Amino acid sequence: MTMGQHSRPGSASHRLRIATTVAAVVVVVGGAITAALTLTRSSAAQGRVPAATTGHATTTVPPATSGHATTTVPPATTTTAAPATTTTAAPASVTGPITPPAGGVTAIGDSIMIDIEPYLTADVPGIRVDGKVSRQFETGIGIVQADRAAGTLGSVLVVELGTNGTVTTADFDAMMQAAAGVKRIVFVNVDVNRSWAAGDNQVLAAGVARYPGVAVLADWYSESVGNPSWFTPDGVHLQPAGAQALAALITSKI
Predict the structure, then answer these.
(1) Rounded to an integer, what distance in angstroms lies between the CA atom of residue 79 and that of residue 54?
(2) Which of 16, 30, 157, 196 is deepest in the core (most CB within 10 A)?
(3) Could you report the per-residue pLDDT of 48-70, keeping only the tens digit for each?
């Protein structure tokens, strides 16, 4: 059909023209839809949204506390009261006490004299006691000489020496000379597990026999030999019962 010519409705050419037009419309519409779909997919790909989040910054919460400042409490301080001062009374006299002789009493000895001092002073009021650890018999001679020269030697002298070493006959005689003028001298023999003990006791017994009326013996050995409980574990020093017994023995000889 040439330009300017028109087909008649219902003719074959007219139907062909309608079909062609419809096809073209379908193609155009289909292309537009395809393009639209392609554009939508492309936009979605370019503007993809990341997976949803909480929308809040992550916050680390420290462990819960009590809400109060920590206070270190020092351990309670215990105040210990100072022990009360106790005054120990002198032991009661075992034998008396006696009335001391005119001129007083002087007692010289070693550590055994220290053991018996509280009991001896209870038994013999006013007695002057001079005891020292490890004192030897010959040292005692010098003390008696000094006391006599100073005018402090009593009219009765107690000599408790021999625990720490040998006593010779010469020692005994020197003691008697140092104590010249004393009315009575009481010599105490020994009971110790030492090699010199038996010899000392023999010298003391023999010496007392040579000076009758002035020298007397306080026989501690015979008094104590059957009483081991009177002694401390060293077998030399005295428990209170032994100290009381020896003080009483000496007092009976004054």
Answers:
(1) 63
(2) 157
(3) 434 444 444 444 444 444 444 44
